[in-house]
Fold:
Amino acid sequence: MINQLSKLIWALQSKKYHKTIKNLTKKSIESIYHNQLIPKIASLLKKNRTNDSILDLGCGDGYLSNQLTKIGFSVDAVDYSPTAISIAKKTYSQPNFYTLNAEKIYKLNKKYKVIIACQLMHSLSNGLEITISQIEKNVST
Structure:
């Protein structure tokens, strides 16, 4: 019951977030997220360039994941919300999108050189320690 309620809440949040982002003016989007945070993340990743893959954990509508694939990275993107993943898949042809709880990223059966969780940590409450433990286990050294 709690799991179904949680999925419903995240589905509504995903739709609301995507609608809000779509309705913002170009200048607002540029100043908030797309032209401040993402270029900084991309710059750091380019500077320390590897051919290994990146996991975008809590990818939301997939914008960051898609931008990273555009600059040449191999990206897998995960979100708990099937609605968010549906929006991402409809909006972007890449990267690989998965509906998955962050605590269960081991199911991807893959190690990543970089795991990004910039849209995730603020939404975790009970599963923070488990998620961090999973991140540690799925980062290659």
Remarks:
- The radius of gyration is 15 Å.
- The domain at 2-138 is CATH 3.40.50.150 (Rossmann fold).
- The mean pLDDT is 75.
- Helices lie at 2-23, 26-34, 37-47, 63-70, 82-91, 128-138.
